[in-house]
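Protein modeling request. Please complete all fields; requests missing the sequence field cannot be processed.
Requester role: graduate student
Desired output: 3D structure, token encoding
Chains: 1
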Amino acid sequence: MRINKIQFFILFLVLLTTTSCYTLRDTAFLQEHDKKITTYQPQAYEDYRIRVNDEIIYRLITIDQTISNLMSGGTSGSMQNVTSYRVYDDGTIDLPFLSHIPIEGLTINEAERMVETRMKEIIPDVTVKLTLANKSFTMIGDIGTGIFPIYKDKMNIFQALAMSGDLMQSADRKRVRILRTTDDGIKTLEFDIRPANIIESEYYYIYPNDIVYVRRAPSSFYKVSGYGSFVGLITTSLTFLMTTLYYTK
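Delivered output (249 residues):
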């Protein structure tokens, strides 16, 4: 059966009209004054609060070095030999010579004061420093995947992207998701990463144990990465069309 040439021509036009290139609106960060992009309101940063199963590292400072080494459980040496202490299901933690210290729900600074108060009953001149051992976040999806350390307080989403290798061009920037552990369970935060006013919003900062998921944009199937690829697609399509028409004469 002879194939109608007009049908091939129509099919070729449909292919061209459904194919486009990625634009700055699709991929650029910190966009302003675009009514088609979501607007976010500023929200004050909230310090991370300790949760069950968190791992705590503590350091004890006192004038008496012998007591310091003994009470710190050897944590004053190399960081490779640091011992961490898990927060139990009842929200308490056990430290050398101290037990059942309730720290769940406290910030690191609040937990330091709690532990220091208890420790001063034994060593009057003591100062206590705490930090999280599990300060990390996870990246998955159309992005550099892996588990990465949170190296500073108030680490933001752009710093996290820089560590993981940035978003792929095909990534859905309109629907980035963060899975975050809260008192009510796992909370899913979905947001558009492109607007400039994401800065200082509730989506801006990365917290310990966050999982950042970036799916592939559904429209990426019809897009090409640049004009070079677009020209290549046209050339290939024309070649296919001409070859088919030649053999159907």
